[in-house]
């Protein structure tokens, strides 16, 4: 008897591929990377991470994959793309762009972004210190910049100093917790207030201009963002100060 659904599949695509389990996907992708090595045993586990993190490691000749449970029930082509990305990382091989693109498209989907947002909000911990530092009060600086550049219209997010005086992460806006965190490096007598104001202003613009998610892209500093940033007084001087922290 002929299969009822015969002819539904695109030519060349084996029906069996559509019903692969995650373990079968990883085993097949492994063979793709290392055709002459016998495929090791594979274990795939879904974990309740606070974000979309995924990890893979080789242990006692077995492959252990830990995926964020955000990917539980992801379509097989997305699981396949993720398998190529993770095993590619493990074996230090470049992965065809079609896979990274497919993966990003999936994460950029509105429903996925909403899920990630919720997961960060619920599972992520946020340590926020007192906005009043030793030398500067972030509440006061926020208020001043809000009046000066935003007609006082920006809603006040949570404000806090980072735990470490980081030079690489000067500030960030966390939309899941509606918080602006400023590096503690600015809470010093020697650091000019203008430099701190500029970093705060930049993060306030992130509050004002949402991230652009079109297609597989994720554009944080949009054109509108850049234009608004140019309105900061003494911008050049402030940027120069950041180079000499
Ligand atoms: Zn930024």
List the SSEs and their pairings.
Layout: H1 22-33, E1 42-47, E2 54-59, E3 62-68, H2 76-90, H3 97-107, H4 110-123, H5 138-150, E4 158-161, E5 171-174, E6 179-182, H6 193-208, H7 223-229, H8 235-243
Helix pairs in contact: 1-2, 2-3, 5-6
This protein binds zinc ion.
Instruction: Give the oligomeric state.
Output: single chain
Total strand count, please?
6
Ligands bound, unique: zinc ion
Looking at the structure, what is the overall shape? elongated
Beta fraction = 5-15%
Order of helices and strands: HEEEHHHHEEEHHH
- Low-confidence regions: 1-11
Secondary structure category: alpha/beta
Main sheet overview: 3 strands, mixed
Order of neighbouring strands in the sheet with most strands: 1-3-2
Helix content: 25-40%
Instruction: From the alpha carbons, calculate the radius of gyration and give it in angstroms.
Output: 24 Å
CA-CA gap between termini? 76 Å
- What does the average pLDDT come to? 90
> What is the number of helices?
8
